[in-house]
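just leaving the lab so this will be short. below you get a single protein, a line of residues and a line of whole numbers that encode the local backbone shape. id like you to explain what the token line says about the fold, in plain words if possible. thanks a lot i owe you, the record is right below:

…
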Amino acid sequence: MMDKNKLIEDNNRKRKELTEENRKYYEDMLIYLRVSYKKSEQETEEILTEMLDHLLEAQAEGRSAEDVFGTQPKQYADEIIGELPKIATKETTGLITMGMLYFLAASTLLTGVIDMIAFYLFDQGDSVKVIHTGSFALKAIIAIVLVFLFAYAVIQYIRWSCFKKIKRVTEFIGAWLFGCLVFLVFLLIYYVMPAFGPVVEFPVYVSLLVGGVLGILGWLIRKRI
């Protein structure tokens, strides 16, 4: 049995053999199934491969995707999703933990790089970073919640927009405005929230070390999922 990465690679190669019309129909269902985040990735890729092989055979006989899967692709995709096994709780926990660690690693590394560039290249800021642990922890929790809400909203939008004809420009503007809104909400909380909790001081380069460790932990969890 091929693993999901090999199945995805195989799927990407085979999809090039589809006609434009069949590829559009199939790729809408592919996206719709792949963003069904509560389902097993392995099982989802296996059924997508089976559907693609079936469609390629039908295409060779002169039939279209609508002839094979019907004129109601969303309804057909929902029936498939209903039959797919749900993702294991352990795997769900691993994915959430991995996402949190990657987010914290990226934000910590970015903060460290900005602080070091500001201090060593532009003589701004300080070589020692000072944080209030209480407000720092609360801001980190709020940021993680906002990021997950943003990701959830994006997934729900992708599911809704599948099988619909929406202009890319409209999608881009909508996504940009929504992203800006989430970012502004975080900035407002960040600057309004008073500092509280025990004070901790450390050299700015420590942020890079902490970010690197968090990134490695996220990578290790990803390897075990």
